[in-house]
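Open question from group meeting: does this chain pack into something compact, or does most of it stay loose? Before anyone orders reagents, we agreed to write out a predicted structure and look at it together. Recording both the input and the output here so the notebook holds the full record.
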Amino acid sequence: MPSADPPPREPDVLPQPYLLFLGDIVEPAYAKTAFGLRDWARERCIGEFACADGKVSVGLPSLTPAQAHSAGAGSLVIGVANPGGRIPDSWLPSLLQALEAGLDLVGGMHARLGGIAVLREAAARLGRRLIDVREPPRELPMASGRKRSGKRLLTVGTDCAIGKKYTALVLSRAFARRGIDVDFRATGQTGILIAGRGIPMDAVVSDFAAGAAEALSPDAGADHWDVIEGQGSLFHPAYAGVSLALLHGSQPDVIVVCHEHGRAHVLGYPDYPLPGVEDTIELALRLGRRTNPAIRCAGVSLNTATLAPDQAARVIAAEGERLGCAVADPMREGAALDRLVEACLA
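Structure tokens returned:
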């Protein structure tokens, strides 16, 4: 039986620094891996590289693979999380260019780098590595439903790519600043690349997903907090199964609901309107009580990235009054964020 604590993926075993690959995407939300590494592991990122048709930038220096290698880069990291985790044929010339320039490839997609013959053959010929981080531990247990010691917080969302990872990282940092024993528990490829450990929940066979969530946050001291990165949405037409398994297996004592101000429809699913924050809270608590009857919602993490600071402050205050709970944008420090942290720890 595997250890209850998932085996670490230490950042320093990955060839660094990274050149972030943005493919040919035109929707910034699909570059969440690149944005996450830029924001939380900037010291490991040397630049960005995109296909000719790419329209997204994360604001890093634009470098070719050869330029990045000359500047010391060790690998090209695929910074895209597109629907289905595909590696389209249009990317292959760029990925081959990186291998030819002397870079290893690091991927977190459902499609495995090693499963693409042209990349596998080129890597073998050039002595380069193909590294897939979206590999769950082997022989994960089925969920037991047993209540574990310690405290847990799970970020849940009204949609994908809405701020669950950033919220968990900010809350983990805020807890640590208060002297609290805390671990950030990564559940997706970006979080794993940032934290150096975790379990890619959406790559786990469904029967073992709740068990993986249990293994992710094992028994701990009474005052220890695991802050767990949420995935998907309980309302998502494609990804709700991952969200539910994570909710049941995490057995969170506290949830924080993440929402983006102004988003009207599920990302990539224009026929599906986004659920309301209140509906998300109600459903998460109702389903979460199955494995932790004491679950509670501490508040709302509101993504206000499209708003000016004064507008964001007004919206945050209005939503807090309307919902009757703590509301904050985790990327905007101040009294609202302090109130959300305090509500989590109450």
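Observations to bring back to the group:
Residues 11-132 form a domain with the Rossmann fold fold (CATH 3.40.50.720).
The chain has two domains: 11-132, 151-345.
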